[in-house]
Each structure stands twice: as C-alpha cells, then as structure tokens.
Amino acid sequence: MIEGEIIKFYREKMGLTQAMLGEGICTTTHVSKIERGKTAYSPDIIALFSDRLGININHEVQSFYNLEKKLHLWHDALVMKKEAQIVEIKAELEQMPFIDYSQYAAHYNLLRARYYFHYQNLDMVKQILTYVKKEFDDLSPFEKNLFYHLQGMYYISNYTSLSNEDHQKAIKVLKMINIDEYRNEEYYHHLAIAYHFGSSKILAYKYAEMALKFFQRTNNYLFAISSESLMLLQYGSELEMNFSEVVERYKDLIHNCEVLGDRERKAILLNNLGVKYFKREEYENALYYFEESINETENKKSINYLRRLCNYLETCTEGTLLEKEILLSVMKRALALAKMLKSPVHITLIKLFKLKAEGAREKFYQYLSDEALPFFYSTNNKFYIEQFGKKLYKYYIEIKEFQKAAELYESIEHTFVSM
Questions:
Q1: Which residues, 6 or more positions from 65, have their beta carbon under 8 angstroms from its beta carbon?
Q2: CB-CB contact of 167 with 159 (8 Å)
C-alpha cells in the first residue's frame, strides 16, 4: 500500500517518531503496520496523518503512479536529444522527494546517469553507476539492461578520452543486453561505435545499419546521420565503394547537419571526410576538411577539438603544408592542451609529429620503436598499431633490419587475428 510508504517517508523526513505521528490518532503499533502495508486503515486516519505531515496525500499518490510514465518519457527525451523536454522532466522529477525511496529509485538514478552523459560529465556518470551497482541488488530486467547500456556508453566515452582497452569492455557489456527486455534499439549505435574502435569493420557496419533503421523509423534524424556516417567510415579494403560516391554522401550529410543546425555532428563528418582523404594521401583536400572541422568545434578545450587538431597537425607534417616554425608553434599549443586533458595518446602522437617536423628522422623511429608503439600495444589501440607499425616495418626493411621487421610483422598480424 503506497500510502503507508509515503507516510513513512515524510515522517522520517520531518524527524518524527511513529509515536509522535500517531499521538491522538492511533497507536504506535498501528502506525507501524500502516507504514509496512500490514493492515487495513480508514481514509480518515491517512487524512489526519497527512495534515500532521503537511502533505496532500492524494497528490503524492497520483505523482507516484505517474512516476513510471514520467521516467520513460525522460528516457525517450534523452534518446531523442529533446533539450527542452529533458530539462522540463528533470525539474518535475526533482520535485518528487519520494522518488529516491520508491521502487523506481534505481530507474531514476540510471536516467540521471544518462542525463549526465548528455552533458558529457563522465565523473558524475561513473559516480552514479557505482552507486547503483552497490545499492541496488534487485534491478528489474529493464533496469539491468539500461545499466549495461550505460556501462557500455561509459567505456566508449572513456576510450575516446583516454584511449585504452575500454572499447573491448564496451563490446562485452553491450552484448549482454537482451533486446526483448530492453526494447531500445538505440544501443546498436553504441555497439557499432565500440566495434569501430576495435577495428572490426564488418560488425561495426552491421550494427550501424541496424541503428540507422531504428533512427529512421523513429524520426531521429540527427542520430540517423551519425549512424550513416559510421557506416561510411567502414568502407575500405573490406567494403568496396566508389570514393566519389563516398564523398558525395558525406557532403549530403554535412548539408543535412547545417539544415538541422547541428554543428558538432557537422564537425564530426568534416573530420571523418578529412581522414578519408588523408588515407589516400590527398593531403591538401584532407587539410581543408580538418580546418573546417576545427572551425566548427565550439569547445576549443575539449578532447574532440584535440583529436581534430592532431589530424590537422599530422596532415601538415606529412604533406609539408605549413611553415616549420608555425607548425611547431601549433604543436606546442596542442601538447599543452593534451597535457591539460590528461590524454597520453595525444601526447605521444604530438611528440611523434614534432620529431618528424623537425626532420629528426632517426630520433623519430627510435621514439616510435621504444615508446610510442609499445604504448599503443599497451592500450590495445589497433588503429595506431596498424598505422605506425607499418611505418616502422618499412623503416626496418629500408635499413635492412630484416629480423626486427619480421618480428614486428608477426606482432601486428597477431594483434588483428586475435580481435
């Protein structure tokens, strides 16, 4: 009986004992039984309790029964990125002090974690997920799947910030989701991202396509753009497609972002198109799109800005597209940002770029061999293992260090076979 739970919550909140609440109304034993739902009671007693506690019991009961519906509405708003609705429902839920002591407490806290994801506050996300894991042993099937989804999202976000093995953890936990219980196909998008970071192109494409269908079906245009751009990223040696068609599709998606006013997704697409040109060694085209991506990035102290700046620096270095002094000056600024953001992968990359820009060829390959590549292996960063491993392999062949070349080749092959 929900009335008893509500009475108990407000009694304890006001610092009253059961005897104090029941004084002149009923016995302490009767108060206890009402609070625990162990006895029948008259509406008059509840009304007297309500007056003493200064609450409208009918309003509180109605709020409780609307709570589950409100939580699902908040979840949908967070998935669809409906900013006004996200803020409005959050404010309404915060006006329900009983929520943290109800049967919906776990659900509410998990959605609070999802809310902090929306604003990229990973510290709060981690804090709430740790709290839920510790305090709630009996999550419902839906809540358990929501927890897995949030864990996976956290591992992905942590990977993009710190570049460690968390994408493998993300894959593992996201695969634990039971879609029949969860009924939120959005998680396919995050599973696709995890596979993308794990260099599993086929699986990344598969789940991105599944996510795209879901977002199209639910008219979630922004995430449909994200899923399609993720699919485009997978084209390459494993998936054949005319490059000019890829470029045109990117341009269409960029235009759609402009129409929808989404600068961040536009910046992502511009950066990804730059990467495509970089891989083809079309450095001037790559530089153009990296510059555009940087210009569209609003937060100049974010990890995303740093990643795009590193792409810009690598392109300038490989294509010799910027005067040496200017390039080194930009690298110095980028290194300071990488240290501020505590991003070891970007610190390592910038040191590599700097050595190459300075023309210190032997020092470049020495640093790559002794520090950079071992770091990429230690963090299981397959993208950079492949990219810089190939550079070092060619260098070993050039200087006739065939044994080292063979060992490196075997190591790289083992990394990708054991994915």
A1: 2
A2: yes
